[in-house]
Request: fold
Amino acid sequence: MTENAVADGWATPPGGTKSKARKRWARHFLRSPVSLVSLLCVLGTVVLALGADAIAPQDPLVQDVRDRLAAPSWDHPFGTDALGRDVLSRVIHGTRVSLTAAVSAVALSALLGVSLGIIAGYVGGLIDEAIMRIIDSVVAFPAIILALAFVTAFGATLRSVIFAITIVSVPLYARLMRAQILSVKETDFVLAARAMGASPWRIMVRHMLPNVLAPIVVAATLGMSYAILAEASLSFLGAGVQPPTPTWGGMLNDAARYIHTNMYMTLFPGAAIFILVLSLNYLGDTLQDAMDPRSS
Amino acid sequence: MVTIMLFLLMSFVPGDPITARYGMDGSSLNAEQEAALRKEYGLDQPLPVQYLSWVRALITGDLGDSIQQRRSVTTILKERIPVTLQISGFALLLSVVLAAPLGVIAAVKHNSVWDRLLSGFALAGVAMPAFWLGLLLLILFSVKLSWFPVTGFTRLTTDPLEALRSSFLPALTAALGGTTAMILRQLRAALIDVMRQDYIRTARAKGVRARAVVVRHGVRNAMLPTVTVIGLATAHLLGGSVVIERVFNIPGMGRLIIDAMNARDYPVVQGVVLVITVFVVAINLVTDLTYAYLDPRIRLR
Reply:
């Protein structure tokens, strides 16, 4: 669904210079308070991740057995967990795993997906057929189980989590890119480049890529939210970055055992995931609107 | 294809079922006993041989024996499949029942307050991690209000009423945490698109009542892309069962595959993967057939 919408929005490249485009984007963000709030939430999360050590009120790993499973208080605004660790500090430090995993997975999968999509779309024929078959078979299988199998096979480390999310995300970018390439393949500027004797490599990278990159930016924003959910799900299932490193999914996994005693343990890490993912989705939608020449 | 991929993947796992069951240090077993056990389960064979013998047995309907549970994988799957289907089926029903009227309202009252509210609801549904929603629902309805059991699962065949009660929260979680929103967004987009078509204007001009225009001319045509999404949603539910069954402690296929992966119980992992693959293929087939049924143009071809 997103793919179609994106493709529609970019059917005709918008004219205008870069500064004009930038102004239009800025207008889009300012016009909608929700988008602005989303942007602030995402930026805020990045700040939390970078400055976690300075911002978090306590060490996220320090245990205090006398103060276990406490409800929110002035000392612990989000309460404490089963080992007496400060939940607020753990939520703040949890941004690190989430963002690192999501940013790396999105970068890797976009790079890989875009390359595969360009090759499949431009070269066509048997290579196209082969690439798309493999991608179809990845898509056909429930992503979470594939990712889970991958992490089980290669060990529950940040690196395998990133690769697992990459593998299940690549098809999105590859399909989108292929569709985009097919739509510009027969345009006059590509024909002109070919007539002038440009190499296929040059045509792909210099002429096609810049013209079809915008939808990829939107897809990557939405892909971030998908990656954050995926990382949290894996951690929740115990197949993510291992304790004691705080992860939002892992915190919820702990919290599931204490729903009778301390509901706050469940409330805050989940809310963090929810707000970040929701913000990224909103940002993606806003970007998509901003890039759609018909909407301005 | 998928089975080969997973077979290869599982072979990278450090440690095998024997070490997983008897401890990594191998202190409880001497080398000879270990070798004998490996031989019994065919783990001493090279990988392609293991795979081929698995496929050969599969053709006769034999999925091998679980190394952990010492029972045949087919028997275990027979217990687990109905559980997952009960929850997923219920969840699918809930999603469609919720999404259909809401999607129509959002599309017909396009750009109204209702539309905005529903779109916001859909966006929230997509962003909501299912396990968080599940825990929140558990806290609210089971712990605070005691309307539903906290854990435990009843089969439809043993006690239908209790089964509905025990599967309601898991199904609601699965529905609200994704699939309802998926279907709602697609139906809304498709219906808005359809309502702009000329034949809708023609129908209105003929004096067809507004409700009939929407239902008979609009929804019928908007169903096509929606059916595809319902198919996707069903596959999504099967994958999501891994998370849902963990939250609600339900003994279905999702729990089975996690336990089997942790125990390196390859025959069980392979069995679950096979079943899920078969289901996904079946879902795609049903989607295509429904498509043909709904759109006579496809049938003629």
In short: Residues 41-290 of chain A form a domain with the MetI-like fold fold (CATH 1.10.3720.10). Chain A touches chain B through 42 residues (CB under 8 Å).
